[in-house]
Design brief:
Elements lengths: L1 E2 L5 H10 L4 E5 L2 H10 L2 E5 L5 H6 L7 E4 L4 H14 L4 E5 L6 H7 L3 E3 L1 H13 L4 E7 L4 E7 L21 E7 L2 E3 L12 E7 H12 L5
Parallel strand pairs: 1-2, 1-4, 2-3, 4-5, 5-6
Antiparallel strand pairs: 7-8, 8-11, 9-10, 9-11
Amino acid sequence: MVVGAGDTGMPLIRHLSERGHILTVVDKSEKNCEEVADCADAAIFQGSGTDSELWNSFGAEKIDALLALTNDDEINAEICRTAKQQYGIPTVIVRVHEPENIPKMKEAGADSTICPAQETTRLFLNALENGTRDTIYELQEADFKVATVTIPVNGSIIGKTIKELDLPEDSRISCVIHNQTPVFPDDSLTLKGGDRVIIMGQTEDVDKIADKIMTEEVV
């Protein structure tokens, strides 16, 4: 079930339809509903995703996944509550417009939340770092981050072991990629220029470790 057939919902609807998924689509806009009818094999309902009568009309108890993609966080939260509390839909994925509303979506029953604002920031920062430092994953509500960093060829940590980096207790270097070969390291691994390092832990700690790894030796 997809609620919201706008700029985000429409490409997803096309993609899922092309792969043979049985779709139910709900959208307030008559124009959007007509566009869905033209491009996808779906049961289409014009109306609000918070309309209880509408939910009763399409057998919501048989739905196994729901995507709440409207432009309103309050509506998306209400859709989550209906999906989980009334119909027990196993998988509920929600678009979140304001990052501060992510905890509210989790409380409402969302299994996964996607915030375009956060994702856009991450992509721009990754591009700005020119591939030397990338955020792979960030879970803001849990203060958790996974990032990759490339050790500069004149990096100040070259020749040091992971133990010598004195990492914070709740952070880890989970993998080091050397000459295209991944290594799952222990504390005795010696770091080399050009190595790609995967770090995970609390956001602030990961950023500090990344800064240390990227520090270049002053000549």
